[in-house]
Design goal:
alpha+beta; Fructose-1,6-Bisphosphatase, Chain A, domain 1; D-Maltodextrin-Binding Protein, domain 2; 2 domains; eight-stranded mixed sheet; five-stranded mixed sheet; 26% strand; globular
Length: 263
């Protein structure tokens, strides 16, 4: 893919933030053996990465607004553009020394998602897409969603609500409906990576509820540019507003809508 000026800006920002997270992740792995909890250290790592992203993106596009996990909403002079940023998706994995986490940066233009990057700095996998230009892994491999048509052959990924999160009873009903029909269910602990891996065909579909806009924005663009469908759990286009998502190829997306609806 010949990267646009916009994509070059995004790639430079996430790679710089990724270097910071990689250094901090090495420290967290050492902290696991100590009695002292590393939770405060991880919070600081999250904030450091977000500061880098905010500084780099602001320098390149000074008028754009932001929606960020830690800073919240930052109004820009340009009301038509907004960065939607998660500096560390998969915080619990990071905390436990599990190398499944990422940076997620999406761009919204006139209310439409038009670009996205999801970057795992440990595996050095960078998933990127611009609307109408396709989706790619590390600028080399074109991403396509899996081609399976039968639900029975699929591996589906999801998020499981943990302590302090609502929706446990609903999730158990959905999981029961899905696991009786599919080849397997997985949970990575990172919604953004779930979307990226669905775009790459590693997973056949992904569903989750109770998630934030910054977990979803970049991945929605990447899945769609990889030939997939992203919707809310009723087939609509209010993923960011409802905090829920269903992604997959057209056939599996349709089948999953039916399964989830039956639950």
């Amino acid at each position: 893919m010949t990267a646009s000026a916009l994509m070059n800006v995004m790639v430079a920002a996430v790679r710089k933030a990724g270097r910071s997270l990689t250094r901090d992740f090495g420290e967290v792995e050492q902290l696991q053996v100590s009695v002292k909890s590393p939770a405060n250290f991880v919070t600081a790592a999250d904030l450091r990465a977000e500061e880098i992203l905010y500084r780099e993106l602001s320098k390149a596009r000074p008028d754009y607004g932001f929606l960020m996990e830690e800073r919240g909403t930052v109004e820009g002079r340009d009301k038509s553009h907004r960065w939607i940023v998660d500096p560390l998706d998969g915080t619990t994995n990071f905390l436990h020394g599990i190398p499944l986490f990422c940076i997620s940066v999406g761009l919204e233009r006139e209310g439409q998602l038009v670009a996205g990057i999801i970057y795992n700095p440990i595996s050095d996998e960078l998933f990127a897409a611009e609307k109408g230009r396709g989706a790619f892994l590390n600028d080399k491999r074109r991403l396509r969603v899996a081609a399976r048509k039968q639900i029975s052959e699929t591996v589906i990924t999801t998020g499981i609500p943990h302590r302090g999160r609502p929706g446990h009873a609903r999730f158990l009903k959905e999981a029961q409906a899905v696991m009786s029909e599919v080849a397997g269910i997985r949970r990575t602990g990172s919604a953004a990576l779930d979307l990226a891996w669905t775009a790459a065909g590693r997973f056949d579909a992904f569903w989750e509820q109770g998630i934030q806009a910054w977990d979803l924005a970049a991945g929605i663009v990447i899945v769609r540019e990889a030939g997939g469908i992203c919707s809310d759990l009723t087939g609509g286009d209010t993923m960011l507003e409802k905090g829920e998502v269903l992604a997959g190829n057209p056939a599996i997306h349709k089948g999953m809508l039916t399964l989830l609806g039956s639950a």
